Structure formats: structure tokens, C-alpha cells
Amino acid sequence: MRTLRTPEERFADLPDFPYEPRYADVAEGLRMAYVEAGPPGGEPVVLLHGEPTWSFLYRHVMAELAAAGLRAIAVDLIGFGRSDKPADIADHSYAMHVEWTRALLFDVLQLGPQRSEDVQRSAPGRGSAGKHNLSGVTVVGQDWGGLIGLRIAAEHPGRIARIVAANTGLPTGDIPMPEVWHRFKDAVLKAPVLDIGRLVQAGCKRELSPEVRAAYDAPFPDESYKAGPRAMPGLVPISPDDPAAPANRAAWEVLTTLDRPFLVAFSDGDPITGGMAPILLKTISGTSGLAHPVIKGAGHFLQEDAGAELGRQIAVFVTST
Predict the structure, then answer these.
(1) Catalytic residue among 91, 156, 300, 305
(2) What pLDDT, in 10s, does the model give residues 91-125?
(3) Active-site residue among 84, 143, 242, 305?
(4) Measured at the alpha carbon of residue 118, what is the angle toward residues 95 and 291, in degrees to the nearest 5?
(5) Which listed residue (84, 242, 270, 305) is catalytic?
(6) Would you call 143 a catalytic residue per the annotation?
(7) How many domains does the chain have?
(8) CA distance linking residue 140 with residue 150, whole number of Å
(9) Around Cβ 201, how many Cβ atoms within 10 Å?
């Protein structure tokens, strides 16, 4: 597999992003990047971004989590941010993105309790003070970060303490995707030049500054670095016989009965995934009894439009369940 590595100087002078990059090998010759904020001994909260962003998206969320005494870990998916970038679209698959991320979280960072059995559908109940007894990691996923994070949580529930779904879902190909998503997929595939900053702006309600748009462009010096963003829309299961469909169906079976607090924190203005919120609330048992916030005035990238508010809501969720 031919990979590219973005020169570090591309990431100079990032606005509101003082976090030092950290790196880990997740496969032979493949390096994955992440940043951390907050006390090393705090409860870990993993933040997974989606298409076509990177950990920079979570900068305001990270500040709120760190202020609450939590260990925020924002990951750059392979093909994005400071992580290595497989140069061919065919090198990207849903299964491999799940595996690369799993390797970072559990093999390298060793988050969550060490258990001989990972698949465990029930866990100790909540104590008298309302605090969940199971130690582990809180997984936060938005967009593709949810598609990957929900799979990881379902396949390794013994390591998971809580789950946050923010403008995301877990498609199996059994329900048609909205037309706006198909338009996005076609635009990404056909564009001679993929304007990353413009794509992010299109998913936001507020106007991004030139410096912020430049930060989203930074990981991609030229078109050869953009196989990841171009590949991701084509990896979403859109038919029942998609290669990823069986694994996603199996994940749904686990998540619907999994005894872990599950927060649904969607914005009020996302035409892409907004319809998933009521489905998650209806089908996931871990959502019961929780106050699920609606993040006001935010679009698909709610971390940009209302990052501090999202961070506060996640912090309250983690510290109270």
C-alpha cells in the first residue's frame, strides 16, 4: 500500500488548537495521529471525527472536557489530519477503518478494562448515586466517526463505559439514504478539485474564518492526498448486500440491548443525519432515562457551530452517569 504523510509545516499556526500531536503505528508502515487534553488520569473520552474533517474539529469540545477533569483524546482517522494517507481509493474500506481505529484505542492506548471476553451485553447496574459502575472509555462519534465508533463499541463492549452519537448513524443498507447524501457523494466523486474547506463550510451554519478553513485544507497539500475523503462516501452501506451490511446489522443487535448509557446529542439543523436521532432514541436501550440535548443553531458539523455547548453536554453526561 502506497501512503503519503503530510509535512508537519502544513499544520503551523492552527487557530485555537495548541495540542501537541502524538503518533502510533496501527499497521505495518501506517502511522495514526491523535491529540490529548486534560489530566492523563481523567476518564478517557475518545472523539472521532468524520468526512472530510480531522481532530481540529473537536478543539472547542476538548477544552470543555479538559476543564471538567476528563481526558479528551481526539483521533485523526487514517487518510485525514496528521495521520498517514493511503494514496489509492481502493486501499480504504469500512472494515479497515474500524480495525485501524480499534488498534489505536485498545492495542496502543490500551483504553478500557482488560477483559478476557470482549463481547458482553450486560454490565453492572448503576449505583445508588447514579454513577455507572463499569470503568472504560466514552466513545463520541459524529458523521463517519459514528459509523466507526458505534461498530467498535458494539464489537468490544467490555471496554466501553458510555456512547455519544452526535449527528451520525449506523446504516445497514436496508433503508434508503436521503437525496442530499447522494448529491454529496456524487460531488465528492466527480469534483476535479476537492475543496475540503468548502465542504466543511457547507455543513456549518456559521461562517468560518479564512484561518479555520485553511486548517481544514492543511492535511491535503494536493489532490493526491485526498483518497480518504474521496473514498468515504462510497464506503457507506447503501444496499442490503453491501460488504459492511452484515457487521453493521450485528452491531445494531448488540447496541439495542447493551447496558451502557447512550447519549443522543444531535443538532437542530442537519439534513443529512437528523432523521437518525428518533431512531436511536427509540431502539437503543441505553438512551432510556437520560436527558438528550438538542444543540441549537448548528448544522451537520455541530462541533464547529456549537462546540463549547456540545462539550459541556458531553462533560455533564460523563460525570453524571
Answers:
(1) 300
(2) 999 999 999 999 999 999 999 986 544 544 333 33
(3) 143
(4) 85
(5) 270
(6) yes
(7) 1
(8) 9
(9) 18
**Residue 116: predicted pLDDT:** 44
- What is the span of the domain harbouring residue 315? 3-320
Task: Output the 3-class SS for the chain.
Answer: CCEECCCHHHHCCCCCCCCCCEEEEEECCEEEEEEEECCCCCCEEEEECCCCCCHHHHHHHHHHHHHCCCEEEEEECCCCCCCCEECCHHHCCHHHHHHHHHHHHHHHCCCCCCCCCCCCCCCCCECCCCCECCCCEEEEEECHHHHHHHHHHHHCHHHEEEEEEECCCCCCCCCCCCHHHHHHHHHHHHCCCCCHHHHHHHCCCCCCCHHHHHHHHCCCCCHHHCHHHHHHHHHCCCCCCCCCHHHHHHHHHHHHHCCCCEEECEECCCCCCCCHHHHHHHHCHHHCCCCCCEECCCCCCHHHHHHHHHHHHHHHHHHHC
- Within 8 A by CB and 6+ apart from 265, the residues are 164, 165, 166, 292, 293, 295, 302, 310, 313, 314, 317
Domain of residue 21, CATH code: 3.40.50.1820
First to last CA, the chain: 43
Active site residue 300: yes
Cell numbers describing residue 197: 474547506
Residue 237: cis peptide before it, omega within 30 degrees of 0: no
**Could you read off the pLDDT of 40-92 as tens digits, one per residue?**
999 999 999 999 999 999 999 999 999 999 999 999 999 999 999 999 999 99
- Pull the grid cell for residue 219: 492535511
Whether the Cβ atoms of residue 157 and residue 259 lie closer than 8 Å to each other: no
Q: Give the pairing of strands 71-76 and 30-37.
A: antiparallel
